[in-house]
Amino acid sequence: MRALVSLAWGRLATALLLVFVHLNLAAALSVPRYSELEARTRADLDANTVRRELGSRLSPGTLIFGPSDGKFPAITARWNTFAPPQIQVVVQPASEADVAKIGDQVQYCNANGIDFLATNGGHGNSASLGTFTGVQISMAMLRTITIQPNKKSAWFQGGVYGGLVTKYLWERGFVTTTGSCDCVGLLGAALGGGHGRHEGLYGMVVDNLLQLNVVLGDGRAIRVSPTSNSDLLWGMKGAGHNFGIVTSFELNIFPRGPDTWHYHNYIWTGAQLERVFTSLNRLHNNGSTPVNMALNFGFFFMNTTVSTTDPILSWTFAYRGPANEAEALLAEFNAIPSVYNEQGDVPYNGVSKVQGNAEDDFICQKGNKRITTTAGLQVYNLTAERLIYNGFRARAISHPTLAAGAGILHEGYSTAGVGARNPADTAYPFRSDHHLMLFNGVIPPNDPVLEELAWEWANEVKDMWNAGQPTRTENNYVNYANGYEDLETVYGREPWRLARLRALKQKYDPQNKFRFYNPIVEPREGKGKGKGKGKGKGKRRSFQG
Ligand SMILES: Cc1cc2nc3c(=O)[nH]c(=O)nc-3n(C[C@H](O)[C@H](O)[C@H](O)COP(=O)(O)OP(=O)(O)OC[C@H]3O[C@@H](n4cnc5c(N)ncnc54)[C@H](O)[C@@H]3O)c2cc1C
Ligand SMILES: *[C@@H]1O[C@H](CO)[C@@H](O)[C@H](O)[C@H]1NC(C)=O
Ligand SMILES: *[C@@H]1O[C@H](CO)[C@@H](O)[C@H](O)[C@H]1NC(C)=O
Ligand SMILES: *[C@@H]1O[C@H](CO)[C@@H](O)[C@H](O)[C@H]1NC(C)=O
Fold this sequence. Notes:
Blueprint: H1 7-24, H2 47-54, E1 63-65, H3 72-76, E2 86-92, H4 96-99, H5 102-111, E3 115-119, E4 133-138, E5 145-147, E6 153-157, H6 162-171, E7 174-175, H7 186-192, H8 199-202, E8 209-215, E9 221-224, H9 230-239, E10 245-252, E11 254-255, E12 261-268, H10 273-284, E13 295-301, E14 312-319, H11 323-334, E15 340-346, H12 351-355, E16 369-377, H13 382-398, H14 400-404, E17 406-413, H15 416-419, E18 435-443, H16 448-467, H17 487-491, H18 495-508
Parallel strand pairs: 2-4, 3-4
Antiparallel strand pairs: 1-2, 5-6, 6-10, 7-11, 8-9, 8-10, 12-14, 12-15, 13-14, 13-17, 16-18, 17-18
This protein binds flavin-adenine dinucleotide (FAD) and 2-acetamido-2-deoxy-beta-D-glucopyranose (3 copies).
The site of flavin-adenine dinucleotide has 34 residues, from strand 3, helix 7 and strand 10.
């Protein structure tokens, strides 16, 4: 649709929109007038044109290709196909020399009214991505890592991902903060905060970001550091997707620590739910998790070899250190009768495999249509978890296909290093959340009835999590958000947070070029149109485009 909007209509619509904005949205007065309606997508955009017009400005390594190229499906594949970006052409810089040319690509797109989107791992989940049509600037080949001479930090190019970084550093005697899933782009996670197995010790990824090289929406390349554009450094640490393309960044690294980590995986039946969550609450003690008890997470999901009606509780614990220390902390869990359990000791770069989130594991796989909701909790509420479990059980009986594709994820990091930071120091707003939740429902591509039921269920679970903490607010980690949440629940409720982000937006991206990943300034002030509130489907914000 958007590709067909004519220039004249664009101008008229802009004028109407401005009237609308001035009449209706006081907040909009502080936001610059964006011109994205005029920056229409070129209807005739194709790879040959782009290659002809842009190719000569880039180095020979850069690939430019469209849907007819054999490489296209893999490089545009998404973890969630619910609302994928519409990619017309892929530009893939392939070498160090090309990094400097990303500004040229941005300028070319701007001059031609083409929207652009930086991508890496393809795991971005937000439905706001579905409003994008244009050129994908694929960062995935930019993977150089350079450990600095003092061995306290390293420079990483914008296309590195968790598994690659972990492996590279471990083999050289180091670790750093990454996401926990090997397949996720390090920057994708980092720009929104970045939760991972070292956050108990060292804080989140944003807490270790020293400086970044960023290409802004007008094509200018800037350094963002404590001494250069330092105001933007705060914004990059939790809302970074809104401000630029990161070509490289410097991050703290640390000596790698113990040679092995201990893991213990369990499967329990639903009958043990109260015991499991009581023990989890005792282990985590409301944000006082032993620092080396790095990460446990568990799913409710169907394992039909155990039961066709009752979902299982499948939990995995990873401890930074030896078995005896870990097992002392897990004694309570060992006392809960399990259907299955296994344990062992592996080097850190093997932990993702035993916890089931390595690159080839199911959770990392792309190409599924998913319905998701999220929540941030402090402690688990046993009543809420029992209600959520029973809701799953009901679907296993009434809608087995829906139940078969669903997993209800509970994450418990050790969080000392997260809580130790001043919350005002980063745009990441939720340092008092200790548990990160995700409802993840995989549904068939063309089944509107099941899709509706999945949304109903996803919102029910989210509501139960939040009703289980009646004295706390609804928090949605930006990297788990589905894109339909209110901005305050994603970027923080303190009014100064969004105000500060909007001021940075006005200064560094006045044309709102970066508006496709949970945007702090929404396209065309789209809030006015059909932003429903309340239950079920109405909870979903309608994006234009
Ligand atoms: C299976 C799975 C596991 C996850 N595990 C974790 C976890 O352990 N910890 C955690 O914190 N989060 C986790 N997440 C959430 C994850 O952080 C986000 O989904 C993130 O956006 C993925 O980044 P990506 O590069 O893989 O995806 P992409 O879709 O390629 O990127 C997402 C967005 O990031 C931005 N972006 C990416 N690269 C750049 C760049 N170089 N410069 C500027 N912007 C860029 C773009 O706006 C893009 O739309 C997980 C998600 C999934 C699906
Ligand atoms: C958890 O700790 C916070 C303070 O960090 C406190 O406000 C809250 O009441 C505690 N919750 C429980 C259930 O103890
Ligand atoms: C399902 O349960 C069985 C134990 O009955 C276990 O061996 C198997 O690993 C489980 N599968 C998954 C995917 O959890
Ligand atoms: C637990 O959740 C229920 C609703 O599911 C709620 O009524 C109750 O107040 C919650 N308990 C605590 C301690 O917050």
